[in-house]
Amino acid sequence: MTILRVDEDFNSIRKAGKVVRETLALVESKVKPGVTTAELDAAAEKAIRSLGGEPAFKGYKGYPATICASVNDVVVHGIPTRKRVLAEGDIVGVDVGARKEGFYADAARTFAVGKVSETAFRLMEVTRESLKKGILQAIEGNRLFDISSAIQTYVNRNGFKEVRAFVGHGIGRQLHEPPEVPNWGVKGRGPILKSGLVLAVEPMVNAGTRDVRVLEDGWTAVTADGELSAHFEETIIIARDEAEIIT
Ligand code: MF3
Ligand code: CO
């Protein structure tokens, strides 16, 4: 668990957040029909390094790339490849992690490739908005599962299913730290949130069943029914009135 206390550390992790944010913006500008996920990965690695950071995922538990690129029914941890050419109508979740000055930041956005179906568009919007609802609860004195409950409630009210096989996490001096941040839970429960605590909040939302399975590569998580999935993630610092989103 990382609880920031001194200005130097706040500033360092903000720099890591900026590397991730700017890298995601660069990747977004390259998302078009015809581009491969391997090309997005190469562009992201170049961006992270030129911004003075290091990729956080590459080599982590043997993960082979800089980003995760999760297309359509891929929930998370899609491995970039030259074989996956993006096509009009796809949605692609891009997850980026970077380290700078000893601190980590981690964020994801799901992008539309050209014009997408009504369901795909709504799934992306609901997932993005559920993350916002969760972050509104991420303030000093609230309980951890206030975040979880806000996400779940919004997702379910809009007819979709939160994934339970993966969760958000503490982050800071390591990429993954306690506590786990589930995308479902009971309001009023869980540990009390403290100012300076750094969390990666990351709803993964499915259009059909919440169930997922992991492919033989040991990473790629897909929906069990082949329906679409979306993923948004921000790294935030708990504060008194409003969390600071650093990514
Ligand atoms: N944002 C994802 C997570 O927190 C990305 C991890 S990819 C990995 O789980 F390779 F680093 F595992
Ligand atoms: Co994460």
Annotation keywords:
about 250 residues; binds 2-amino-4-trifluoromethylsulfanyl-butyric acid; 15 strands; alpha+beta; about 25% strand; Creatine Amidinohydrolase; 4-stranded antiparallel β-sheet; binds cobalt (II) ion
The total of helices stands at 4
- By CATH, the topology is Creatine Amidinohydrolase
Mean pLDDT: 98
- Lateral strand order in the biggest sheet: 8-7-9-14-15
- Helix residue percentage: 25-40%
Order of helices and strands: HHEEEEEHHEEEEEEEEEE
Gyration radius, in Å: 17 Å
CATH architecture heading:
Alpha-Beta Complex
* Strand fraction: 25-35%
Structural class: alpha+beta
Q: Name the shape in a single word.
A: globular
Low-confidence stretches: none
Total strand count, please?
Answer: 15
Unique ligands: 2-amino-4-trifluoromethylsulfanyl-butyric acid, cobalt (II) ion
Highest-level CATH class: Alpha Beta
What would you note in describing this structure?
This protein has 4 helices and 15 strands. The model has no long low-confidence stretch (mean pLDDT 98). The protein has a single domain, classed as Alpha-Beta Complex (Creatine Amidinohydrolase), CATH 3.90.230.10. By secondary structure, it is of the alpha+beta class. Helix 1 runs antiparallel to helix 2 and helix 3 packs antiparallel against helix 4. The protein binds 2-amino-4-trifluoromethylsulfanyl-butyric acid and cobalt (II) ion. The site of 2-amino-4-trifluoromethylsulfanyl-butyric acid has 13 residues, from strand 5.
